[in-house]
Amino acid sequence: MTEVTQHDKSAAERRRFFRIDDTVRLSLRRVPAEELESRLDRLDHDLAGNFTVLSSLTAITAQMSLGLRRIENRDPDLAAYLRAIDQKIEVIGRAFIAQEPELIAERATPVNLSAGGMCVGIDEPYEPGTSLEIRMLLFPSFTGLLIYGTVIDSSPASTDESSGRYGHVARIEFSHIREQDRELLIRHLLRRQGDQMRDRHGEDIKIHEDL
Fold first, then answer.
1. Does domain 23-210 correspond to CATH entry 2.40.50.200?
2. Is the pLDDT of residue 13 over 70?
3. Euclidean distance between CA atoms 55 and 41, whole angstroms
4. Rounded to two decimals, what is the model's pTM?
5. In the chain, where do the E strands start and end?
């Protein structure tokens, strides 16, 4: 029993901390210490506003996927109808995201991302221990994640890190993320990792053909 538990724990840790380079839209805001508890409570009770609607809907869809596959085996037409309804709901969810003009206006930001935190370029340094509200829009799903994080450190960016766009690089740990959102983020990371591996494989084949 202990061995199984330790194995499951190790697998969960690997899923949480494996990292990829990605591009997202991102908004970072300092959170005053006196406001942090109330904001976390609103997030836990799904009262954080329009931005988390699509992620909540996506999490519900994931929970329903097994039942939908069973329905599909018995009645493909009904399953197709239910999938069409789900797509309509997704369109409505994206409309809620569109009501967040501040984030939509943000430029695409390169990040080194995991389910436990991220490394990202910033214009001004943050003090270690600073609490941040993180609004992150994932592509191509347009899933909005609202996460609270703590700055581990920030330092001047090297030329490679900043690409001339940012003066500093911050390492941020996700101190509070809903479990359903962490699962969505892990699935996103796995998909992006698969896409990147296929892209690299295609490039390797092309190079081989050109030789």
1. no
2. no
3. 17
4. 0.73
5. 20-30, 108-113, 117-122, 131-138, 143-156, 168-176
